[in-house]
Amino acid sequence: MLKVDITKTLKHFQLTTSFTAEAGITGIIGPSGCGKSVTLQSLAGLQTPDSGEISLNNRPLFHSEHGIHVKSKDRNIGYVFQNYALFPHLTVEKNIEYGLKGRSSLEKKQKVSSLIKKVQLTGYENHYPNQLSGGQQQRVALARTLVTEPDLLLLDEPFSALDHHVKHILEQELVSILQENYSGIVLLVTHNMEEAYRLCDQLILYDKGQIIQSGKKEDVFQKPENTAAARVIGCKNILPVDSITKTNGYITCRMEGLNVKVPSRHVSDNTTHIGIYSENIAFTKEKEDADNTYSFTINNVVKGIHQTDINLRLENEIDIIASVLNNEVDAVWHGEAKVELPMSQLFLLKTTSSSPQG
Ligand SMILES: Nc1ncnc2c1ncn2[C@@H]1O[C@H](COP(=O)(O)OP(=O)(O)OP(=O)(O)O)[C@@H](O)[C@H]1O
Questions:
Q1: 53-77: pLDDT as tens digits
Q2: Ligand 1 binding pocket includes 141 (Cβ within 6 Å)
Q3: Which CATH architecture has domain 227-350?
Q4: Which helix (H) or strand (E) holds 17?
Q5: Residue nearest atom 2 of ligand 1, based on CA coordinates
Q6: How is the chain split into domains, by residue range?
Q7: pTM
Q8: Exposed, middle or buried: residue 209 (CB in 10 Å: 0-12, 13-18, 19+)?
Q9: What is the ipTM of this complex?
Q10: Ligand 1: centre distance to CA 37 (Å)
């Protein structure tokens, strides 16, 4: 198990992070510059926290009070960087072999050739990095790390340098390479929500150097707890609540004169906002006076390849964004539909100290 509890003063804020991670893929997600890479670098021993402790499988790697700071090379942690950082003057084989310095020639040969097979680079042993595609370079970087049999594998935006169309394939490749060849702990840094959801088991959400939520990925995406977490996971509608009334079985949130009903099991004393994914907003003709159903006008429409974002103004002048499939846009535009905020899709949020109001 990895245990982390560290602080480090950065340029614009203090990184204060405390979490544990077990075997499987744990994703660290958050906006650009929120401290994700500094966290990985601190684990790898490339940056030194100001205080706190880090241990891996009960072995202390860093402890500010006990003066422990295990050198980077002695931590048994593998690190795959954003740009793979392969040695340009070394062949695929030599790049992978690099991590095995000091081992016998026979061991090196066996381990390298086994890894080359596993990451499907047979035939490329004598190629140089600039003769490989982005995906092949990524596999060399992964092989170079896995060959050292690390206890912890750090992946910092491993897909950011790749074209969109190969990303999906390589993601699945990465998952199957890891499933077949690695049983340790993986920390994956990304700011791509879809990627995080597809690849990770557990998630840690960051904002300005703080953990704002963590847990099983399904829970984090389905039940964001605060406005900052909702923003990080890509919720486009985070609406301020003026007051809350509890009634039997549900609560009523008042927003600028509009009543929104929410199941009471979600209630929390310090709720400040309601959130709903734009994809979960519904349009309805039948339920004229149904709960959470409102008239609207359309402010503007942004058409994507498959999906359109419709910026709506509700009857009380609150603006929300609804995402609909392109072939459903006409029905919304020309119909006499009302917009519905389905009760089961709403979540109540509190404001965290690190998240801006509104
Ligand atoms: N040693 C350091 N001392 C002070 N500030 C630092 C140090 N290292 C990094 N920073 C700053 O800390 C902030 C967080 O950087 P970090 O690279 O961890 O962000 P990130 O979340 O990984 O961002 P991105 O997603 O863009 O890679 C940045 O403003 C960076 O300039």
A1: 999 999 999 999 999 999 998 999 9
A2: no
A3: Beta Barrel (2.40)
A4: strand 14-21
A5: 10
A6: 2-222, 227-350
A7: 0.88
A8: buried
A9: 0.96
A10: 6
